[in-house]
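tool=predict chain=A
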Amino acid sequence: MNKPSLLSAPPAGLSRRSFLEQSATAGAVLAALPASRFAHAASGSGPLKLALVGCGGRGSGAANQALRTDANLKLVAIAELFPETARNALQNLKMQHPDKVDVPEERLFFGFEAYKQAIALADVVILATPCTFRPMMFEEAVRQGKHAFMEKPVALDSPGVRRVLAAAAEAKKKNLKVGVGLQRRHKPGYLETVKRVQDGALGQIMYARTFWNMGTARAMVARKPEWSELEYQLHNQFYFAWQCGDIHLDMGLHNIDVINWIKGSYPVSAMGVGGAEVRRGRDAGCLYDHFSIEYEYADGTRLFAQNRQIAGCYNNVAECAHGTLGSVEMRNDRNIFEITGPNAWKYEVEKPLVNPYQKEHDDLFEAIVQDKPYNEAERGAMSTMTAIMGRQAGYSGRKLEWAETLASEKVFHTPILSLTDAPPVLPDANGVYPLPIPGKYEPL
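tool=predict ok
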């Protein structure tokens, strides 16, 4: 199976060279620092210095996992918008790793420019803010010559994906190691199952199905009187698509990435439906509660991808593929990986159980310490782009082609640069936020 790349896109799509030429402006900025500023790659020169940018649940979790690796590592800086969030995270990390956390008050940085200060003090940075900020922060990490772990999704729109891809190419030139939080790629059950499928256990794959159907993911944070509208939205990132990308990108990306991994390529088109059947009304946020997207790959294989966040319904999180010789079902939360047909097989769960959230950090820091090639940014960006194309198809009701979507200049929202900026969406007089209307929404 061929490795996924930009050239795996449809023949009419952009080549790697022409695509990166379009991102020349972003890429040119990244070369500003000399090679002497690159982060050190091996132990022996003191502990690796870690910075955490974004201290929510996933950021704190990622920092905890990084500090649990075998690397000689110390957390030295934190960047956050909200001081209370940063100090709570710091307190928890100190309790778990008293000898590996050294972040005095002067190395707590706050505000929209804080990430630059934290990155400057580190060898490795964890980027775990809402994904709308990911491209500019990854660019800065690469510009400063620092290794990085990026939570997924890595971008919110096509211009953001192009910025990440340009930065990923520059990171390779600088020998920087980059991890992306698509942890299924590090889970033994997936690794063994995908290898068997790629080796032909299913014969020719005809179609695939993915599901991330669940109830409401998180309770909404109640509005405080002292908060502005923007602060309220920033405290509820998973209820506002301008921060999380909507549920097809935020959740469905994991499933979609598995099928891209199996296929060794990316879809050529997407079409489908989406909407807000239940998530509507006052304080419901601003994102859809369901998507059903059909992707097509260059060889005609289809992927039918469902996402839903509606309480009281049948829940299902799985990736399935069907071929001429059989089928495979993969269920991450239950550690079920099973192939049916003449090559029937069932994964015997490893003991002790491997935590893929931990393993992705183990693999990244092993690559840093041993100076092994390691850069997950390109495939992370390309699977992100796949889900963006699906979301835009669902929002608009149009069939979208890979090349035109990848090249789109449409930005999801105007940049947010301070807490005094106007939020990208505003509620009406009844507290209801506007949603994209299929048939009227312009996707590109």
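The two ends are 32 Å apart (CA to CA). The domain at 187-352+386-406 is CATH 3.30.360.10 (Dihydrodipicolinate Reductase; domain 2).
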